[in-house]
Amino acid sequence: MAGRGDQRWAVTLVVILVVLLGALIGVAGLRLAQMRAVPMAGVREAPATTAGDPNLEMSSDAWTHSQSQAVSDVLSRYFNAINSKNYSAWTDTVTSARAAQDPQEKWTTGYRSTKVGTIRLTRIDDAGSGRLIALVSFASTQNAQDSPDKRPQNCWRVSYTLTGDPLRIDATGPSGVLVGPCR
To answer: Which CATH architecture group holds 57-180?
Structure first.
């Protein structure tokens, strides 16, 4: 039969294990809550008739990523190229696969009346194999006939894949793009 010392030891061990398990569950829950707390909100209050400020803003979450400056730089150059209608500058920000999706004539026609603004880099995630995912929201204004949904203003949420050194925006399928009316 076990003595009182053995029983106390067993009870103490069970209490310690329960406390450790609770702490692990708590830490996992907090981490999950932090991941869910990252805003996926759309463009913040896009102006009623313009695209808004063309300068890229970065969330504090994106700012903490080790590649935030490189991502911010390539995205800023990408949107500046669209706003200035500079295909050559745009191709300097994208991979050859992405450029092949929009040859110069198609790109020029597609962006001929587009202005982009209210640009916000919300999050940067590592995707493995040297690839990054950048979550970006922005507003665009364009002639209604140039819009994918025939609206003069759209708000976008895009998941850009970036790769290479220096970073470039890779081809993105339609599942990485959400577009709709601005609020």
So the answer is: Roll (3.10)
